[in-house]
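Researcher: Can you fold this with 1,3-dihydroxyacetonephosphate in place?
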Amino acid sequence: MKHRKTVIVGNWKMNTDVQSGINLAKQILDLSNNITNVEKIICPPFVSLTSIAKVLKGSSIQLGAQNVNPNENGAFTGEVSTAMLHGLVSHVVIGHSERRMFNDESSDQVAAKAVSLSKAGMNPILCVGEDLSIRKSGKAVNFIAKQLEASLKGFSNWNSLIIAYEPIWAIGTGEAATSAQAQEMAAVCRNIICNLTPDLGNSVRVLYGGSVNSKNVAKLLEQPDIDGALVGGASLNAQEFSNLIKLASSK
Ligand code: 13P
């Protein structure tokens, strides 16, 4: 029995419009609001956050955003600051490989986001992950250790942190990492945190993400260092996502 509470996060990415997002959130709420031994977070697109916050108000499901700009305000066209998200969401996904890839986000920038979120009292869900060529070259452990350390530069609010190990080769491919591969890398992440904060390292939650569904989630959650899942595609189907939460709750 792990002492860390399991957490299941749905990352909707750039899917749903405002109305379909409200509908999806309502369905997830209907099917899983009564499961309380799992922490549940959904991360819709920015434009849906205010309406979905109303749907989730007073429920057991928390709301997250998918990105944030660490600057307080100013001339950053198209960006959303921590101050804007404050009071609206409890969690923010940062450092997702899609943003590192398509928006050229560096680990330095991810670290700035983590620091700014913690100052504002929000919880970062910090993603790290290697691509297939790094995995094949046998350098994944080293790469993840470096990426995680760099993404945490200046950060110290360990109680607020959730880490997600998401190998790029497993995202959206239907080919999840094996539970042994996911465990190995989750342990690498935990070791890094334990080195940075010996007292609190063992209470930081480490999630796995990459083609998680209701068929593979149980096996992943059996691993000693995997405390939950960051779910993409399967979080867009209320029944599938709720099944996954139910399976996590019986772990
Ligand atoms: P999939 O579950 O669709 O593979 O996406 C994983 C992911 O990137 C979640 O952030």
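Model: Folded with 1,3-dihydroxyacetonephosphate in place. The longest helix spans residues 179-196.
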